[in-house]
Amino acid sequence: MHFIWETMTETPVLQLRGLDARYGTSRILQGIDLTVRSEPVAVIGRNGMGKTTLCHAIMGMGPICDGSIRFNGVELIGRQSHQIAKRGIALVPQGRHIFRSLTVEEHLQLVDQGGPRRWTRDRIYQLFPNLAERRQSTGSALSGGEQQMLAIGRALLTNPRLLIMDEPSEGLSPIVVDKLVATLQSVLAEGTALLLIEQNLSVAAAVSERLAVMVVGRIALETSARELLADKDTQQRFLGIGAVERFESIGSSDMEHPV
Prior knowledge:
The protein is of the alpha/beta class. The protein has helices at 51-59, 81-86, 104-111, 121-127, 129-133, 144-156, 174-189, 201-207, 225-230, 232-239, and strands at 14-23, 26-36, 41-44, 64-71, 74-75, 89-92, 162-166, 193-198, 210-215, 218-224.
């Protein structure tokens, strides 16, 4: 069950070749090859497999990298994070990184570049009506789901060509995750490329038909969502028992404030 996606002729938005990443002497990523075009791609895997390090490597956020990371044909290795962001990549980080003391409106003002752009504050509030109602609420007063929507809105306001999302469903209730998936589908319809990093197979499969499974710093398998959902043995081998069922048993801490 291995698909050769490289036969597609569309110019890659993001192309990783032989990517190694390390912190000091600890080698985390080992020879990663991955291509993202206009279709969404999801990288899935258990905790500790190197998924967040992959995000940080692409964004120039810490690890020492060898190999190649090309965005729209331009090499990114050696560039600073702010330079990478200006080229059109936005990261929604794991844990959201919302400022507790800033209001929703202040968060969005920080990154709003103004002018005639696809994503504006008005459009973010249209996409997330709950945020519009709570625009004067501070980050500490928001539910987990609202914080995630704010993190997404903040990233979209940079008008990225590529959106990277690291574990967006983590800690959210099923009803909020459903709304998150619907939101991502709306964003994709706008033409933004997506690299989704997820533990949850159900979420990854709902957003992307193309899946790359990461195991101990390597891409162990590239396949379709349809194939992997139907193959319980492969799920257990690479993702552990209950890969799909975990989606149905997420806690209900956000049920009082659904997005």
